[in-house]
Amino acid sequence: MSKGNATENDIIKFIFQNVAMPSYGSNLYLSLHTADPGEGGDQTTNEASYASYARIAVARDNTGWTVSGSLSSNAALLQFPQCTGGSNTITHIAIGTLSSGAGQILYSGALNAPLSVSNLIQPQFAIGDLDITED
């Protein structure tokens, strides 16, 4: 997964100019996307739009994420709302800062395979399916 441009800027200012990192709150919010939101995008860029879709909150602690070295993975099953109408082909996922609106993308990446979402399909990621690495 790659970082969004705003996140990269936050980190470099923190390291080299001693500018405080923004407060991201106690949750991160996962969003589904029908195309790459890009490093310059936000969580609304190419965001899923099937009926009943909503971002999901994941706690910023050891119940939400495991960390080992430079790798973090989801520590629990992550389930998005079940589709109740419409359809989307999901190709990307993002981890961001807001439950709705133009949240800052912290990380985004492509799924291993596109996911077709239509009526009664519930997108989900098993424990350990989302891996975020720092190179």
What does this structure look like?
10% of the residues lie in helices and 37% in strands. It is mainly beta and 135 residues long. The protein has one domain (2-133). Strands 1-8-7-2-3 form a five-stranded antiparallel β-sheet. Strands 4-5-10 form a three-stranded antiparallel β-sheet, with no helix packed on it. The chain has a two-stranded antiparallel ribbon with strand order 6-9. Strand 7 and strand 8 form a beta hairpin. The protein is globular and about 50 Å long. The relative contact order is 0.27. The mean pLDDT is 96.
Mean pLDDT: 96
- Domains, number: 1
Terminal-residue CA separation: 10 Å
Share of helical residues: under 10%
Treating each run of at least 4 consecutive H or I residues as one helix, how many helices?
1
Q: Describe the main β-sheet briefly.
A: 5 strands, antiparallel
Measured by DSSP, the beta-strand proportion falls in 35-45%
Spell the H/E element sequence.
EHEEEEEEEEE
Radius of gyration: 15 Å
- Give the beta-strand count: 10
Low-confidence stretches: none
Structural class by sheet pairing and helices:
mainly beta
Q: How would you sum up the global shape?
A: globular
List the strand order in the largest sheet: 1-8-7-2-3
